[in-house]
User: Fold this.
Amino acid sequence: MRRDMLTIGAFARACRLSPKALRLYDELELLRPARVDPHTGYRYYAVGQLEQARLVAWLRRLGMPLARIREVCALEPAAAAREIRAYWARVEAETAVRRDLAAFLVDHLTEQEQSRKDTTMLELRYFAHSDRGRVRPANQDTAYAGTRLLAVADGFGPAGAPASSAAVEALRFLDTEEVPAGGVLNLLEDAVRGATEAVRDATDDPDANGTTLTALLWTGSRLALVHIGDSRAYLLRDGELFRITHDHTVVQSLIDEGRLTEEEATAHPQRTLLLKALGTGTPDLRLHDAAPGDRYLVCSDGLPTVLPDARIRELLTTGAPDVAVRALVDAANEAGGPDNVSCVVADVVREAS
Ligand code: MG
Assistant:
């Protein structure tokens, strides 16, 4: 045997992994022995493979999928470092989605306790408008606002318009339905399923057509958010603007992974490419406590594409909901109106007695 070759036992001792782990890495093609004796089947490893064996072990401890470990191990150190950073950013983004879902469930279950004690009567004042913009031949957005439901859907594909209107139409029963005590989860689940089916029925080719959906459902003291795609919801509270949705776009995931800055993203040629839309992924769910004076904005991507958040905040800060909606839509069009633009603005106010 050559001097720089180690038996599997010696190699295992040197890299502090078990021979069993090494055999597994071989089977998974994560770390192939430098030589396998054709007669005995014994595995031999090169001294130079020690580092890689350790790297594989650490990446497995990190929870990285096997296919990705294979890719990382084939890279130069600098590129491997970038891959690991990107992988971890993705894990954190996914954890954030699960954290929000956990918070939603905690809020939901807490609400069942609190709703009996709640004496403040709140309601929504709202306005919705959808505009074709200055460039697109047709409006494929749908916007809706009612006493309980606020929704924006942005359709895509040749049947984008019927897709977005079918999604919103399917949710409209929520506007008249009293939310049953403790029934929000079921209601949202039914609503999303109904909207998904309606979109499928409204288009011939579900692969070529679809829609985003961002909706807020008023429960009497809270707003339940359903969100999938790149339409957005914002909350203006005490003069500060908070974006309460996360874009499900390829570009946003590149930002999350640290491969792209927010600034670079605005000019990215694929910034409209969606990661998921209604029917092709799980929507994000969230519950928001409503406070008198809160103002919500739901909009299609046609607005933030041309207006930075600071400008949206400025235009959103003054006037009744209809004034704010008109100001936002006008500003998008003045900025070129490259896309359809839809805005829903709703204020949380004390119920008029
Ligand atoms: Mg759009």
Remarks:
- Residues 154, 300-302, 339-340 surround magnesium ion (CB under 6 Å).
